[in-house]
């Protein structure tokens, strides 16, 4: 475990708000690859509870659609 001195500003804030419960939190966010940017156009959530057919071992699937502007290239 990290000591109090090793905490980032976000971790110190979480520790101040929630106490020791925040130590179990990890950032598992997915990021757009470097050089990719855009606007989120749609988010679709598929779950077994809604009757969606998912692969075995998958309980929830989230698809994020991003609109990107690109320069037109030949080829």
TrEMBL record:
GO terms for molecular function: DNA binding; DNA-directed RNA polymerase activity. Transmembrane segments: none annotated. It comes from the Bacteria. Gene3D superfamilies: 2.40.50.150. One of its GO terms (biological process) is DNA-templated transcription. Residues 10-75 form the DNA-directed RNA polymerase subunit 2 hybrid-binding domain. It holds the Pfam family RNA_pol_Rpb2_6. InterPro entries: DNA-dir_RNAP_su2_dom, RNA_pol_RPB2_OB-fold. This is RNA polymerase beta subunit. It comes from Streptococcus infantarius subsp. infantarius. The gene is rpoB.
């Amino acid at each position: 475990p990290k000591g109090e001195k090793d905490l980032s500003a976000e971790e110190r804030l979480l520790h101040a708000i929630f106490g020791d419960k925040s130590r179990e939190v990890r950032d598992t966010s997915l990021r757009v690859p470097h050089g990719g940017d855009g606007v989120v156009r749609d988010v679709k959530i598929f779950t077994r509870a809604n009757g969606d057919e998912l692969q075995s071992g998958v309980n929830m699937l989230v698809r994020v659609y991003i609109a990107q502007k690109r320069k037109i290239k030949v080829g």
